[in-house]
Design goal:
heterodimer; A: about 110 residues; mainly beta; five-stranded antiparallel sheet; about 55% strand; globular; B: about 110 residues; seven-stranded mixed sheet; 11 strands
């Protein structure tokens, strides 16, 4: 089976930097996504990592280490609107060619003034 | 504008009734997915379809049924056999190959009275 772990909740201060970690154990690896989800809304895509290293996109960056089964999402210059749930999703390797992202339970980030 | 549309956004159902949630996409995506989201549980896969006229069970398919008669449409029926159907249901689509993110609909919140 697939196992994806993220912290349940984190808090941070407006203007600060926060790092949300995700560790995974999957049968093979085809990529890792990070999504942001505000309460009662659809998840929105943030980043996609398939190779090791850091991908930067504005205030958000995502890092991947395939050998360690580890990723993190880095949020800089935090804003109140960044308060949301952050979902880590991994695409395991499938011999049948199916492409099925498996999601972690999400990390609820609370940004306070 | 291309996108993925779910309806209804809110739905109330009495115990013992079947209900069908609609999901339509005009992104020309081959793959479509249904996830269920409960508090603290993350997204759990109900059914997925990689191509028209074919679909596969996910991790929690019991009590649900789907069809994929058209590329654009992937409706989900929550049957009376589903023991705990109150949840937030998310439909997603993707290119279904080894790249690319999933695009999500806005979700349907089902409450069983």
């Amino acid at each position: 089976g697939q196992n994806i772990d993220q912290p349940t909740e984190m808090t941070a201060t407006e203007g600060a930097i926060v790092q949300i970690n995700c560790t995974y154990q999957t049968s093979g690896f085809n990529g890792l996504f990070w999504y942001q989800q505000h309460a009662g809304e659809a998840p929105t895509f943030l980043s996609y990592n398939v190779l090791d290293g850091l991908e930067e996109k504005g205030r958000f960056s995502s890092f991947l280490s395939r050998s360690k089964g580890y990723s993190y999402l880095l949020l800089k210059e935090l804003q109140m609107k960044d308060s949301a749930s952050y979902l880590c999703a991994v695409i395991p390797m499938s011999g049948g060619g199916s492409y099925i992202p498996t999601f972690g339970r999400g990390t609820s980030l609370i940004v306070h003034p | 504008d291309g996108g993925i549309t779910q309806s209804p956004k809110y739905l109330f159902r009495k115990e013992g009734q079947n209900v069908t949630l609609s999901c339509e996409q005009n992104l020309n995506h081959d793959a479509m997915y249904w996830y269920r989201q409960d508090p603290g549980q993350g997204l759990r896969l109900i059914y997925y379809s990689q191509i028209v006229n074919d679909f596969q069970k996910g991790d929690i398919a019991e009590g649900y049924s789907v069809s994929r008669e058209k590329k654009e449409s992937f409706p989900l029926t929550v049957t009376s056999a589903q023991k705990n159907p109150t949840a937030f249901y998310l439909c997603a689509s993707g290119r279904g190959i080894n790249t690319g993110e999933l695009f999500f609909g806005e979700g349907s919140r089902l409450t069983v009275l």
